[in-house]
Amino acid sequence: MFRAFIAAAVLFSSGLVFGQDAGKLGHSHLGSAFDSGLRSKPWKFQGLGSAPFPISTKQPEVQAWYDQGNELLHSFWFEEAERTLRWCLKLEPGNAMVYFGLARCGLNWFTIGQGPEPNLARFRDFLKEAVKRKSTVTDRERRYIEAWDAAWAKTGEEARKEWISLLQELCILYPDDVEAKCQLAFANIGQGSALANEFLIQQILKANPMHPGAHHARIHNWDDVDSAQAIASCELYGKAAPGVGHALHMPGHAYSGVGMWHEAATAMDSATRVELRHMNERFALPFENWNYPHNRDYLCYIQEQLGRAEASIQGSRDILRSPRDPKAPYGDYPAILPLIRAMLKFERWNDILDDKALPDPGQPMLAPFKQVARVIALTELGRANEARDMLAGLQARMQAMIQEEIAKNPSMADSIKKSAEEFAPPLLQVAEAKLLLAEGKRLDAIRILLNVAEKERLDREQGKVSNDPPSNPWPAMRLVADVALAGGDYGSAIDAYGKALAVVKKDAWCLAGLAKAHAARGETELATRYAGRFLAVWSGADPNLKLMNEVLALKLNAEPKAETLKPERPYNPDNLKHLGPSNWQPFTAPELTCLNTNGKTVRLSDFRGKNVLLVFYLSDQCVHCMEQLGAINARYKDFAAKQTVILAVSSSTPAQNKSSLALAPFQVTLLSDKDHINARRYASYDDFEDMELHSTTLIDAQGRVRWKRSGGGPFGDVDFLLDEISRWEK
Predict the structure, then answer these.
(1) Measured on CA atoms in the order 670, 671, 676, 681, is the torsion positive or negative?
(2) Which CATH class is domain 57-157?
(3) How far apart are CA 411 and CA 415, in angstroms?
(4) For the chain, which terminal residue's Cβ has fewer other Cβ atoms within 10 angstroms, N or C?
(5) Separation CA 666–CA 335 (nearest Å)
(6) E-strand spans in 453-566?
(7) Whole-model pTM above 0.90?
(8) CATH fit for domain 300-579, picks 3.90.1210.10, 1.25.40.10, 1.10.3730.10, 3.20.20.150
(9) For the segment 359-397, what is each residue's pLDDT rounded down to a tens digit?
(10) What is the sign of the dihedral through the CA atoms of 388, 394, 397 and 402?
């Protein structure tokens, strides 16, 4: 689920804007492909690792920036890689390999085989420009361009086969080209033998033991296969690229895969803090950086595994409360899922039924998850009749949706039914099973849970499930074990818990269940061993959790004793505070110092205690700017009711603003920004083409940025702006 989400999230969406015609004010002179993305000057990063990619260039500075762009690409930092590579193009216009690098920001491991996907159009445009100029570069460089051109001309598996074939040819012809081998290592992931790909990765590491891309590829290569094989790279990737959140994040994947939950938490918490620190320093919001919500979701999951319920739930709520992208390709990050996952896992039944504790997800496709969680909560609270009615209503609505789709596409009826069955939330069946248990139909309930567990097994075998993290609270086999334990069938419980542990290594609930089952059978030695393993995992757990109390009630006098591949460092968030915050908070707005129509200095601090809608527009000659300001002005009273002032900033002089007939009807405060000083602070200036951009920023009463958007066209969804103010004030 999340791999598809991430692939979409790295491709920028433009939002609702007025006037996207090329050649208009605020739009790139280089073409529509340059209208999206970050448009302010890059900076020299620290801690990216070393991954040089020599290209044909006349300027050493271009090569240095190109290497930085390549290092960013190796850690999937696509938006910053594009910003860096654009600077190369400014320094050396027309360089074929720079265009190729820009194409890679969207045409990469995530998108191979997607065909004519609209969100890839501008990256294909970059590639076309590289192809036009391929005669100007070396044979080696030309082969890179041709490999991408041939592969992205195809779809599905044929595209990947073509990519692998041409990269193999490059590696054979240029055996010392580390970059070609690293690209091939990524292309090979999931396509055959992980062990064979490991030998290729080892060749890269022999040439460059701290190559960030090689360590990154190794972790992905063994993820969902045998994470233990990637532990060496888990220890080195973050050291190779300490300034990259994703380099700290990826080890958390492997550590989770082998049940080293304390190390996983340290990795994922570090990644989250480094990402947030960068975002706060560089004026970026969560929806502009796919790494942040993914990091935070994964950290929530790991905190659940460690019994840190409050931290996990708080983290999920912070994702929900963070700014939203109104036109994200696949919707906002599905933050309701980690919140539901934690609430179910820690049996927060009353919170699940409380709309304040568990709000509506805001995305229609996620609404059933909340309803299913409520069915389970009602069942567990002994309100089976209400639960049955709610479940029946939900199933009827889902069937109605299916019939609506069939009515639109009668010829695809069988396919629609099959897809609906395949993609129905497993929680729906779990809810049915729990209801059957409450109704005394134990065998029927077990049969359903075993069917869910079997589907999970088949999905894992077919690569449909990834460690990314899971949206479901538990492996279904653990629920089978719980039912067996509650029914006194201790042998079946032990067997089922063992199978569940093969899915989620060192899972605390399974370890606790095994301790209880063995204790019930009088097998004290085994019970004590599992209790000790459980206590080691939950050594920093919240007090008075039900599961901990149940294990302590066994009176086994067990001591915490971890059984992990390597000794772990206990997870201690206090030791990571120097890296930055772990939960998103609005950051302080940049300084604003402008002149009003009377030439008097106006500062942002003058409006402290009021919300501020800050709009940078181009001039009263820009038709689309006037449309935006007119739409905002029409809702002036609505903004005033929300204690929000409206500041409209341009490079026009105070005298020009005062005499403008076009601006005269507007009730907004008109401000003058000399030499675009303030526009640069608010990412409202294109440093590549030296021109102004449109931007819209929401600032709260404490002077903190809550939402922003900048680009070639002004943001025009006034309802969204008003809703966003209401949302953060709740």
Answers:
(1) negative
(2) mainly alpha
(3) 9
(4) C
(5) 39
(6) none
(7) no
(8) 1.25.40.10
(9) 988 777 788 899 999 999 999 999 999 999 999 999 888
(10) negative
